[in-house]
Write a structure and sequence with these properties.
Elements lengths: L16 H16 L5 E2 L11 H12 L15 H15 L9 E5 H13 L5 E5 L6 H6 L4 E5 L9 H7 L4 E7 L11 H18 L4 E5 L22 E6 L11 E6 L6 H14 L7 H10 L7 H16 L4 E2 L6 E5 L10 H9 L3 E2 L1 E2 L8 E5 L4 H6 L1 H10 L1
Parallel strand pairs: 1-11, 3-4, 3-5, 5-6, 6-7
Antiparallel strand pairs: 2-8, 7-8, 9-10, 10-13, 12-13
Length: 399
């Protein structure tokens, strides 16, 4: 028998639990029909892109220039990098970031794996507060690194003592995500100040720079007048990675970026390393057409009011069903505590299997580093949310 040369780490057991639930939903819909299945598994933005984006698409398609599809610099089109530099300067409250501090990537995922490729040596660790996006584990493993979760406090704020204990000479970076997937938590300015002060202290103690990476695709989706704090003025060795998947509702176009703090001591070396990583990982950068679209429409504003309506609807339904949850401050997820079963269990996999009996699909919290919880993604049609009310109540009562 001929041996298969498929790496063990690439088998289906390593696949995302979110994608598994999404595929399960497709099977159930084929049996029961789309309207009978309540699929809250995948965070797939469903707003139409803003008018400015659609106008840019139309104009660029109708007025194509010779060379528009040619190769470009490895860091991306200069005009797109300049536009994103303007965006980051506004968000971070600085004026010193230029196009030379920006790299265009294939989505925020491409940005993160490029940064990890640039900074991780075999055995290096990336610390992350729980809960966290499930794919982070794989992004670190791609480059022989290790994601090391640090348990958050009950309110999901940083446990600085936990971070202090976890930091070692193997710590290459701390990764934060605000607003957070899966909880919608926004880290406050005070929390970030505490974390940055700790990283300054620990970097000196271990004799290596600990990078602080902020994953910010949900930055613009916030509720009740909240804001996402700037980071570049708090910590020199900081990096922002993001995309236009959520704020402009362009998830399938895979347009992301890396922005390196211009105050960083080794900024030019890191930018060169990330640019090289972006090239040799195989995807190089995002397609030229949508880089030009973004250069024209990056500051367009989407209307997120429907997400807020859906947040209000799903929180009422889940509350009425007797399920506890963490109030989302941003993004479009509800992170819920698995109710105690009659046997006294909070098994999130068992509860998500139980929900499937009522044709409800949610993602178990274990995949996000938080056993005993489950995630609801409410960027689904409003009728799906409203029609799921009785199913949630029945599932809770029979658990």
């Amino acid at each position: 028998m001929i041996a298969k040369n498929i790496k063990e780490t690439m088998n289906s057991k390593g696949a995302s639990v979110i994608r598994k639930m999404f595929e399960e939903g497709r099977k159930l819909k084929a049996i029961h029909g789309d309207d009978a299945v309540f699929d809250f598994s995948l965070g797939n933005p469903d707003l139409e892109p803003p008018k400015e984006v659609l106008d840019a698409i139309k104009d660029l398609a109708q007025n194509r220039q010779v060379g528009d599809s040619a190769y470009m610099p490895n860091a991306g089109l200069p005009e797109t990098r300049l536009a994103i530099a303007q965006k980051i300067n506004g968000e971070q409250g600085i004026s010193t970031l230029t196009e030379n501090h920006v790299i265009i990537t294939v989505g925020a995922a491409g940005a993160l794996v490029s940064v990890f490729k640039a900074i991780l040596n075999p055995g290096d660790e990336v610390l992350v507060s729980t809960p966290f996006f499930a794919e982070y584990n794989h992004y670190a493993k791609n480059h022989e690194g290790l994601l090391r979760p640090v348990q958050s406090r009950e309110d999901l704020s940083f446990d600085l003592d936990g971070f202090s204990t976890a930091i070692s000479d193997k710590t290459a970076a701390v990764l934060i995500n605000s607003p957070n997937n899966p909880s919608g938590k926004i880290y406050t300015r005070k929390e970030l100040e505490g974390l940055c002060a700790l990283l300054e202290k620990k970097s000196k103690e271990i004799g290596r720079t600990i990078y602080l990476i902020s994953d910010e695709p949900y930055r613009d989706i916030v509720y009740d007048g909240r804001e996402v704090s700037s980071l570049f003025d708090l910590y020199d060795a900081s990096i922002v990675v993001s995309s236009f998947a959520k704020n402009l509702s362009l998830p399938g176009e895979r347009l992301g970026y890396i922005a390196v703090n211009p105050s960083m001591e080794d900024a030019s070396e890191l930018i060169a390393a990330c640019t090289f990583a972006n090239r040799i990982l195989g995807f190089v950068n995002a397609p030229a057409f949508f880089q030009r679209v973004i250069a024209r429409s990056w500051n367009a504003k989407a209307d997120f009011s429907s997400y807020e309506r859906r947040k209000n609807a799903i929180t009422k339904i889940v509350r009425d069903a007797g399920i506890d949850f963490i109030e989302p401050e941003g993004a479009f997820y509800l992170f819920c505590k698995v109710p105690l079963s009659k046997e006294g269990s909070r098994d999130d996999f068992a509860f998500c299997d139980h929900l499937k009996k009522y044709l409800i699909l949610c993602a178990p919290g274990t995949g996000f580093g938080s056993p005993g919880y489950f995630r609801i993604s409410y960027c689904v049609p409003e009728k799906t949310i409203m029609n799921a009310a009785e199913a949630f109540k029945s599932a809770r009562e029979s658990w």
